[in-house]
Amino acid sequence: MARKRIPPTRVWRYGLLTVILGLVTVSALGFGQRSFEAWCPFGGMESLWGLFRAGEFSCSTGPLNLSLMIGIIVLALVAKKAFCGWACPIGFLGELAARFGKIFWRKRPSIATKANDYAKLLRYAALILSLYFTYKLGELVLRGYDPFFLIFSGFGHGSAGTVSLIVLIAIAAGAFVVPMFFCRYLCPLGATLDPFSRVGLVKLVRNEQTCTMCGVCQKVCPQDIAPQDMRVVRARDCTNCLECVDACPVKGALEIKAVI
Q1: Is the dihedral of CA 22, 152, 193, 56 positive or negative?
Q2: For 201-258, CATH number?
Q3: d(Cα 207, Cα 245) in Å, to the nearest integer?
């Protein structure tokens, strides 16, 4: 049996993600000039109330967190959630977990469309709760439940002990069952980017004349988006990872274009 070829875009994307994951790991081990937390863009959101109210950053957040947050919002306006598919280390680990999970699933359980859509509302709850308690208490309360902090800090200061361990295990288990489990349902940064991603300039466009409606694009999409049902993919969860473009059996049926 011929070995399955790895899509070329994935090679470049995973290469970039591996470099970023490595740099964050080096920083987390104490070899960088900054704490690994300085590279968390959501820290920019968490710092806003402290800046507004007292003119200073909250807890361990700083100017880099805010700069990254602004930069990623601008990126979302240009290329939707490209950060999530091309740069986020937690998204990368989630995608790898989903691929590893295929080994154990003869047929992966499917989530009904309505249930999937309703479950995505949880990330808005995560966003609201994390910001509310951070602004109220002046502490980064998300630390104890944030896989980024828990993994790279090794359950450091701010973790919630056994509760944090249970949360991380649950997120990891979810990733084996539902691809991009944390990104889909719990990520507050994803919720923050949603409105900007909807109007992102660079989108996937389907050629209705050449598309055969085979559905391969949806099968390979980490976010379970159905490009075959759309002319222009405006879905808030699209990360422009281009897995669907590489998998499409008809050249040119799916293309990445600037569309208003």
Answers
A1: negative
A2: 3.30.70.20
A3: 12
Task: Tell me the per-residue pLDDT of 147-175, one tens digit each, with 9 for 90 and over.
Answer: 999 999 999 888 889 999 999 999 999 99
- Which pLDDT value is given to residue 93? 96
Six-digit token pair at 168?
Answer: 């991380």
Q: What pLDDT sits at residue 174?
A: 93
DSSP 184-230: HHT-HHHHHHHHHHHT-SEEEEE-TTT-----HHHHH-TT---GGG-
The ranges assigned to domains in the chain are: 8-197, 201-258
Q: How many angstroms separate the CA atoms of 142 and 71, rounded?
A: 22
Nearest to 151 by CA among 42, 31, 37: 37
Full-model pTM: 0.92
- Compute CA distances 3 → 75, 96, 99, whole Å: 36, 19, 16
What pLDDT, on a 0 to 100 scale, did the predictor assign at position 3? 61
